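Lecture 7 notes: from sequence to structure.

We start with a single chain of 86 residues. Read the sequence below before looking at the structure.
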Amino acid sequence: LPALSNLVYVAGHFVEWPAFFVAVRRNTMSLPNDPIMLLSVVNLKLRDFYKDLDVLCDDMDANKADLCAKLKAVGYEYDPQRNQFV
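Now the structure, written as tokens:
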């Protein structure tokens, strides 16, 4: 049983805090398969959370080549100057 000082209350449950912070440190949300939804989510994340596509792909465990290919298939390419798919 963990010591009470190591517990934190999250979403109605007590969890051991070192394990909780390790689990939420990386972004575990999966990217959508639909290319238009993918475009929307990726551009939002690039705008609000990531300095470039490499950091986003690393943090989300996404394959950069696959992501770029999916978006290129619907007419969008990554512009590093704008940090967006346009």
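Residues 19-25 have pLDDT under 50 and may be disordered. Keep this in mind for problem set 3.
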